[in-house]
Every structure is written in structure tokens, then in C-alpha cells.
Amino acid sequence: MRIGILGLGRIGAFHAETLSGLDAVSSLVVADPFAEAAKNAAERFGAEVADSAEAVLAAGVDGVVVAAATDAHPGLILAAVEAGIPVFCEKPVARTMSEGVEVLRAVQGSAVPIQIGYNRRFDAGFVAARAAVTAGELGKLHTVRSTTLDPAPPPAAYVAASGGIFRDCSVHDFDIIRWVTGREVTEVYAVGGNRGADYIKEAGDADTTGAILTLDDGTIAVVSNSRHNARGYDVRMEIHGFTDSIAVGLEDKLPLRSVEPGVTFPAGTPHDFFMDRFTAAYRAELTAFTEVVAGTRTSPCTVEDALEAGWIAEACTLSLHEHRPVTIAEVRAS
């Protein structure tokens, strides 16, 4: 199949490389406001270069991948749907929840599939965890712990436009908690601090946060995030039930050092970047998109799914700022 790519920054170029290696993809058509980025993609992957998003959509593509700046996501999603072209879009759907809701309303009733990029749904460990929970291997759940720790904060300009750590980083934890447990979040309480880069505090954001999520069956989920984890990129999950307990991410590249006498785990070189930790997941995610394009599977992460994680991020942001518990119903109604 022929796939278009809109946006060739860090993640867009990574997707171009991944797509170029998939058997299902015969050719790529790419576009980026920076001509040099498109030229580089053409040279590296044999892609065709188009001079605009409209030109990509008119180039006979079977599907399109949106990896452009967040502000462009709503317009590009809607343009693809209007053209009848299945679309994969990196999260978030839009910069604000109100814009995201507008996108959802605009595409409801459309037969054109939309897949939003939450790559942890395609990581082998998280897939196995979901299967174990679904099969009842853990019994009734009581506690979930989810962790995302970045090795270093993103640049100041990125932080200022990110919407905050809950919307930018923690949202991956929120999505994967919903997906693995099959439950919805009803209430949150969030805290945060700033003990690192000054520009994060100056942007009105926190560099380290914790959130307690109450799920609709009473399960408690604890989410821990930080922009400062010098040992590496740390993504883990624990799921505890009344019958068994399991963990995702306890492997030799875990960026954590044991000080127990005689313990050598973990023995490998720590993960240092999200693309390192989730290379296989990204490949599986885009492979899934080619199956969506081919009509052999439904979207594995819909606009509705993405917005549900977004509401949790909104609630945590409000909780952090107002130092109180916040229900999901409250932010939906605001």
C-alpha cells in the first residue's frame, strides 16, 4: 500500500523509517513545512515529496500518518476523513479538550477509520498484562502502579507549549491503565513539585508529579512521573490482584540499580530514550495501522479512547493547581 506522512520531525522521521521496512508498504509520500526534512526522507527511504498536506492526500495514498505539530492535528485528521483516507495521528487529538471534542463530533458516523498513537498498547509486556487481567489470572484487582520517568526534561520551548506534564507525559500512563484494566477512572488527586530545571516552574508546570486515581470498581492506581531520571528512561507497571501480582518493565534494561547484597539485576545497559524502549511497539503499532487501512481490523485506539485519557489529564492538572480531589465528571462538565 501507499502511505502518506505529514510531518517529518523526530517522530515523523522515525515513523518513515519504520513504515519503509514494512512488507505491506510499497511507497511513501511525505510532506513537511521544512523542505530539507522532506528531502532527507526522500533520500533515506526513497519517498516521494509533496509540497503540502493537500498534495499528499491527492497523491493516491491508501492511508496517512499525521506526525505534524499538535495544533495541526484536528485539521489534518478532518481533511483525511473528508478525503476518505484512513488516518493515524500521534497523540493528542488536539491541543485542548474542547477542540478534541469538536473533532469527535465531526467524525462521528464516518466510516473512515482513525487510529490515535498510544504505542504502549502494542508493547509486548503491556499486551501480556492486559491478557492476564482479562483472563482473570490476578483475580479481583486492588492496586495498579504506573511509572514514566524521563532521563532529562525536554527543551524550554517544548515545555511551554506542551500543556503540562499530565497532558504531555502522564497521559500515556492514564491510557495504559484504562487499557490494561478495562476500567474507567472516576476521581483523581494529584501533587507535583519542582526541584530541577527552573524553566519548567517558570512555565507553570511541575517536573515531578504523583497522582492517585480511583477506578470505577474501587481499584486504586498510583501514577508517578518525572522529567529527571538520570539513570535512563523508566517505564513500568505493576498490577496487583487478590490472586496474583504481575509487572511490566522488569527486564535487564530497566534503569534502576539494586543495592541488595549479591543482587546483579538488572544486568543490561539502561534504556535511555523512549524510542529505544518502544522500538518494537512502534513497529507493531504501525503494522496495526496497515491492517486498519487494509480493512482487516478496526482501530485499536480511537478518538474516543484518546479523549478519555485526556479527561484524566485535565482532572489531574486541575487537582494539582487547586490541591483537591477532582472527579472526571467535573472536568467533562466544565
Gap between N and C termini: 43 Å
Shape: globular
**For the report, how would you describe the main beta sheet?**
7 strands, mixed
Number of helices: 13
Stretches where pLDDT falls below 50 for ≥5 residues?
none
Helices and strands, in order, run as: EHEHEHEHEHEHEHHEHEEEEHHHEH
Radius of gyration: 20 Å
Question: What average pLDDT do the residues reach?
Answer: 96
Number of distinct beta strands: 13
Helix/strand-derived category reads: alpha/beta
Beta percentage is 15-25%
- Main sheet: which strands, in order across? 12-11-7-10-9-8-13
Helicity level, as a percent range?
40-55%
Structural overview:
- With 334 residues, the chain is α/β, with parallel strands linked by helices.
- Helices cover 40% and strands 21% of the residues.
- The chain contains 13 helices and 13 strands.
- It has helices spanning 10-20, 35-45, 53-57, 73-82, 97-107, 124-134, 156-162, 165-181, 198-202, 274-277, 279-294, 303-322, 328-333, and strands at 2-6, 27-31, 48-49, 63-66, 87-90, 114-117, 141-149, 185-193, 208-215, 220-226, 234-241, 245-248, 326-327.
- The strands form 2 sheets. Strands 12-11-7-10-9-8-13 form a 7-stranded mixed beta sheet.
- Helix 8 (165-181) crosses helix 12.
- The radius of gyration is 20 Å and the shape is globular.
- The protein starts with a strand and ends with a helix.
- Its EC number is 1.1.1.18, 1.1.1.369.
- InterPro entries: Gfo/Idh/MocA-like_OxRdtase_N (IPR000683), GFO_IDH_MocA-like_dom (IPR055170), NAD(P)-bd_dom_sf (IPR036291).
- Keywords: Oxidoreductase.
